Amino acid sequence: MAAKMIDCPSCHHHGIGIVFSPGSPMMEGLLWLLIFPGIMYTIWRRSNRRVICPNCSTEFMLPSIF
Ligand SMILES: [Zn+2]
């Protein structure tokens, strides 16, 4: 999990954002037993990964320039 400095447009939080992946690691593990669905699920989770605000959970983060 990489930390990213963010500026929240909603609550004006400035600091480290949380990297959030949709779905669950447990589901991912189960699907990997079937190989192909596991690959698809992992790709889906990776491509939908986003940084959210630790304060108000807003998804639309502006990367901080500082
Ligand atoms: Zn916020």
Task: Give a summary of the structure in a few sentences.
The chain contains 2 helices and 4 strands, in the order E-E-H-H-E-E. By secondary structure, it is an alpha+beta fold. Zinc ion binds next to loops.
Walk me through the structure:
The protein has one domain. Helices cover 30% and strands 24% of the residues. A 4-stranded antiparallel beta sheet has the order 3-2-1-4, with no helix packed on it. A hairpin with a 6-residue loop joins β1 and β2. α1 runs antiparallel to α2. The longest helix is centred in the middle third of the chain and has 12 residues. It is elongated. The chain starts with a strand and ends with a strand. 9% of the residues are buried. The model has no long low-confidence stretch (mean pLDDT 86). Zinc ion binds next to loops. The site of zinc ion (ZN) has 8 residues, from loops.
Give the key terms.
about 70 residues; alpha+beta; four-stranded antiparallel beta sheet; 2 helices; elongated; binds zinc ion
Instruction: Give the N-terminus to C-terminus distance in angstroms.
Output: 20 Å
| Number of individual domains | 1
Number of strands: 4
Shape: elongated
The largest sheet is: 4 strands, antiparallel
User: What is the share of helical residues?
Assistant: 25-40%
Determine the mean pLDDT.
86
Strand line-up in the sheet with most strands: 3-2-1-4
**Helix and strand run:** EEHHEE
Named once each, the bound ligands are: zinc ion
The total of helices stands at: 2
Structure class: alpha+beta
Gyration radius (Cα, Å) is 15 Å
Return residue spans where pLDDT drops below 50 for at least 5 consecutive residues: none
Beta-strand percentage range: 15-25%
